[in-house]
Amino acid sequence: METLELLYVVEKWCKGCGICVNFCPKNVLEIEDGKVAIKDLESCIQCGQCELRCPDYAIYLGGK
After folding, report:
1. What is the DSSP letter of 33?
2. For residue 26, what is the DSSP state?
3. Contact in structure between 10 and 59 (CB atoms under 8 Å)
4. pLDDT, tens only, 17-41
5. Do 6 and 61 form a contact (C-beta atoms < 8 A)?
6. Cα 36 from Cα 38, distance rounded (Å)
7. Minimal CA–CA distance to 20: which of 44, 46, 63, 55?
8. How many whole angstroms separate alpha carbon 52 and alpha carbon 4?
9. What is the phi-psi region of residue 13: left when phi exceeds 0, alpha when psi lies from -120 to 50, beta otherwise?
10. How far apart are CA 2 and CA 24, in angstroms?
11. What confidence category does residue 62 fall into, taking pLDDT thresholds of 50, 70 and 90?
12. Which of 36, 49, 53, 63 is least surrounded by Cβ atoms within 10 Å, i.e. has the fewest?
């Protein structure tokens, strides 16, 4: 079975507001060097809160 990426970040669109980090229930994300970074992808439950809350469309779910 092929492993698909679950979460994508478009760094050039991210302004580092941290909204996605604050809404993530599993602490998958963090702000690093002024941009969102994925710190624990294995904990992602694909709830979509990061994608839904990002005002700049800089983060989105992939996979299934």
Report:
1. T
2. T
3. yes
4. 999 999 999 999 999 999 999 999 9
5. yes
6. 7
7. 55
8. 20
9. alpha
10. 26
11. confident
12. 63
Q: Which residues pair with 17 in a beta bridge?
A: none
Q: Return the structure tokens found at 34.
A: 């002024």
At 57, the amino acid letter reads Y
Q: Distance of alpha carbon 35 from its chain centroid, rounded?
A: 11
* Contact predicate 39/8, CB 8 Å: no
The single-letter code of the amino acid at 30 is: E
Per the structure block, which two tokens stand in for 51? Answer: 């994608």
Structure tokens at 28: 């998958």
Nearest to 20 by CA among 44, 3, 42: 44
